[in-house]
Design goal:
Layout (H helix, E strand, L loop, with lengths): L4 H21 L15 H32 L2 H23 L1 H10 L7 H4 L2 H4 L15 H19 L2 H14 L2 H5 L2 H11 L14 H18 L2 H9 L1 H20 L5 H29 L5 H28 L6 H22 L5 H6 L9 H8 L9 H7 L4 H19 L7 E8 L13 E8 L12 E5 L7 H4 L8 H10 L7 E5 L12 E2 L3 E2 H16 L9 E6 L1 H12 L6 E5 L6 H24 L5 H16 L4 H16 L20 H12 L2 H9 L7 E7 L5 H16 L5 E5 L7 H16 L4
Parallel strand pairs: 3-4, 3-7, 7-8, 8-9, 9-10
Antiparallel strand pairs: 1-2, 2-4, 5-6
């Protein structure tokens, strides 16, 4: 049996791309565990491109590897090898490698844990991710390969029998035709057409991921079949340029398709056919060029073949740990990317080279076979030399990552950093900053008083002495800063958007600030509370003082604008009306404003949730303070991370009560629902209406203030999913008119956040900037 070195090379290359891919996720517009405030459109494009065919290629190679394993081992040994090399590393990864990732993610979400030791027991008590903390994260590939190996064993064993080999020979003859190879996309396309409407996402959880599961299974099975004969591989190599051309043409067709989006069942089916054709063409092109140019052995390949599995298991945890430190540093995006990439490579290689490959227990935990001789001697024997200690020159020859290679790699990284550190001319800067917020000190929930913010500075800021007006933007409930700066809302990127507006003359040069509003309860509602901290004072005091003290702002109310989205829009409107001495204009986007009917609806929803909350409080009654804190923390985490809209709103109502009417006479968490049996309806409605309603009182208080806002704008989407927001926005605008307060009501296309990116760029930013004075 001849070893397929080309498949070994492709496996190593595919996993190397995976490491580039995961490093890029922190700098993309897609959700990930830890995010940079700024993202790259190029990284987005590369992620989408590689995602199309990278994992299918790996599953194909894994299926091919099964053919060679079954050639080499009897069935019982093959099964033992599958269990040992897949399930043992998976269990080790879930208990040791993955928990630091989840811990960093919870800290990034502003969850409160005093240390990793405080967090680690929740891995076993909180349930599965994302509501809980037990996960296999990027290791999902391992249980899928194990499941595929078990499911296909009867089929593969039969194909290796005498009757099965007859069928296999026919398949092999059929697949030697280029036309048949071009048609390989049909099984995976049919799978997606039938199952994607019911399982649209890739959850990677094995139990509710049937479209993704069967789609990848098709590549695994075809990989096994194609590996059974070198003739098919030779045919693929002969036609490799045709496959590459087809891949490029189908990529062009996909780009054209997505630039002219349409909908409908036939359109979706056609898109899935085109997408699977595109995937298979890249897979076949990679296999063909690999067969032609990579079917050779090399000491780097021998080293990498063993190293790639431990690298795969470790790399994402190292990336996340590094990203937690790097994303808040004031440094260019590409500098951060290459520092994390270089750091991940060196740390992972060091752990593998110095510890994992030298300790047999760890070798087994990372899917390697145990060694029974010293590593250096075994390496020397593998090279054909004596089993003696090696001198420096011999080590350099044996080690593919020797001193010279490491030196060249580091020089290359430094050259890239120098090239990417300097920004092009006339480009603004998006700074991550962290500052002390005394208003949040001493709160009962343990919310930190060191808070991050994203600060946009115009291009002229670095070269002049001018002072600038400032827009303060308040995020929605349970929404991190990066979603407004890094492309999560229809690829809206704050720096690029403001640069473009200023460059076109649609917006004056303005500093834009997005302070953090995320904490253990998802959001503060921008009110002062003993439970979560004084968030009104934080915005109107700490954030403004920090900006005026560190940056060249115009420190006057007329030069400060306040805006927000969702609950942030509610907070912006209320804070601006209360503090016209601090802010000069306000722009509330899709604000949670309640009229009388909306208050009744919210009260009814609270009445339905109240008994469930009372039952939880009874369940926690006998726990000590620490136990109640842990149980509440896990409960609110499950609410906020639930895919269920109703469960998510359970968390929202709890945060509303914690901000608006905490009851410190009760045990922790000091939150009580107003119950129908013990509170009059008017009393319950007053509790819910205090934050999002009661606008007559709030506007009357504003009218008693001698200071006036330059501009008040309320804006919502005409198709907003929350009818009470559309109704409440109109109600508050009319109330302002009635009470003699000038304001503008704007109705935009789209829903609550379905077109938010365009509304920010064409609405809020230029309009609010034009309402500011000074400068």
């Amino acid at each position: 049996m001849n070893r397929r070195y080309d498949l070994d090379w492709l496996r190593v290359i595919a996993f190397a791309i995976l490491m580039l891919f995961h490093t890029g996720m922190a700098f993309s517009s897609y959700d990930w565990h830890v995010k940079n405030f700024e993202s790259s459109a190029l990284i987005d494009w590369l992620i989408v491109f590689f995602h199309q065919w990278r994992m299918p290629l790996l599953f194909f190679i894994s299926g091919a590897a099964v053919w060679f394993a079954m050639e080499k081992y009897p069935t019982w040994r093959y099964l033992r090898e599958r269990h040992t090399r897949l399930l043992v590393p998976l269990l080790f990864g879930m208990l040791v490698v993955i928990p630091p990732q989840v811990y960093c993610e919870r800290l990034y979400q502003r969850q409160t844990y005093s240390s990793f030791l405080d967090f680690y027991p929740t891995v076993f008590t909180s349930g599965s991710y994302p509501q809980g903390n037990l996960s296999w994260h990027h290791l999902w590939y391992v249980p899928y390969i194990w499941a595929f190996s078990m499911i296909t064993l009867p089929l593969f064993a039969w194909l290796r029998s005498t009757p099965g080999r007859t069928v296999l020979a026919r398949l092999q003859r059929f697949l030697q035709s280029p036309v048949a190879l071009f048609a390989l996309f049909v099984p995976s396309a049919i799978i997606e057409i039938l199952l994607r409407p019911f399982y649209p996402g890739d959850s990677n959880d094995l139990v509710s991921d049937w479209a993704n599961f069967t789609h990848k299974l098709s590549f695994f099975v075809i990989g096994f079949i194609l590996a059974s004969t070198p003739r098919v591989s030779d045919t693929i190599a002969v036609h490799r340029r045709k496959f590459l051309l087809a891949a490029l043409l189908s990529l062009t067709a996909l780009l054209v398709w997505f630039s002219h989006r349409s909908s409908g069942p036939w359109t979706a089916a056609s898109l899935r056919c085109l997408s699977n054709f595109h995937t298979w063409m890249w897979v076949l092109a990679a296999l063909g060029f690999g067969r032609k140019h990579l079917n050779f052995n090399h000491r780097f390949l021998r080293y990498s073949t063993d190293a790639v599995y431990p690298f795969y298991i470790l790399h994402q945890t190292v990336i996340v740990l590094l990203a937690m430190q790097i994303v808040y540093v004031d440094m260019g995006l590409w500098s951060k990317y290459f520092i994390i990439l270089a750091g991940m490579s060196l740390i992972t290689w060091g752990l593998y080279e110095l510890i994992i490959r030298r300790v047999n227990v760890l070798r087994i935990c990372f899917g390697l076979k145990p060694k029974h001789r010293p590593v250096a001697a075994a390496a020397a024997l593998a090279e054909g030399g004596p089993g003696l200690p090696l001198d420096g020159a011999a080590r350099a020859r044996l080690n593919p990552l020797g001193a010279e290679a490491a030196r060249k790699a580091m020089l290359g990284v430094l050259a890239v950093l120098l090239c990417t550190s300097s920004a092009p001319a006339r480009q603004g800067t998006l700074l991550p900053v962290t500052f002390k917020a005394p208003s949040l000190s001493g709160n009962i929930m343990g919310v930190a008083d060191a808070q991050p913010a994203a600060v946009y500075l115009p291009a002229s800021y670095a070269s002049g002495t001018n002072r600038y007006p400032v827009i303060y933007f308040l995020p929605n409930f349970d929404t991190p800063i990066w979603r407004y700066t890094s492309g999560a809302f229809q690829r809206f990127r704050l720096r690029q958007a403001v640069d473009g507006l200023i460059g076109r003359g649609a917006m004056r040069e303005t500093i834009v600030v997005i302070p953090n509003a995320l904490h253990i309860l998802g959001g503060s509602w921008y009110r002062n509370s003993r439970l979560t901290g004084n968030w009104e004072d934080y915005i109107a005091g700490d954030v403004v003082r920090f900006m005026d003290g560190r940056f060249r702002t115009i420190p006057e109310a007329r030069a400060r604008g306040l805006a927000g989205h969702g609950i942030g829009g509610t907070g912006a409107l209320e804070l601006a009306l209360k503090h016209p001495d601090i802010f000069g204009a306000v722009y509330a986007m899709s604000p949670a404003l309640l009229d009388e009917a909306g208050i009744k609806e919210f009260t009814a929803a609270g009445d339905a949730q109240a008994p469930r909350w009372e039952e939880l409080l009874r369940k926690w009654a006998n726990l000590d303070g620490r136990g109640r804190r842990n149980e509440f923390r896990l409960y609110i985490q499950k609410c906020l991370n639930s895919p269920s809209h109703a469960v998510h709103f359970d968390g929202l109502r709890l945060s509303c009560l914690a901000a608006g009417s905490p009851d410190l006479s009760l045990p922790y968490p000091h939150i009580a629902f107003p119950l129908p049996q013990r509170d009059a309806r008017s009393s319950r409605e007053r509790v819910w209406g205090e934050i999002m309603g009661n606008w007559e009182t709030k506007v009357a208080a504003y009218n008693r203030n001698a200071r006036r806002l330059n501009s008040i704008t309320i804006e919502y989407g005409r198709d907003d999913e929350y009818e009470w927001i559309r109704r409440g926005s109109g109600y508050v605008s009319r109330l302002l008119d009635t009470m003699g307060v000038p304001n503008t009501l704007t109705v935009s296309d789209g829903g609550h956040d379905g077109t938010l990116g365009a509304r920010l760029e064409t609405g809020m930013l230029p309009r609010l900037s034009s309402a500011l004075r000074g400068g």
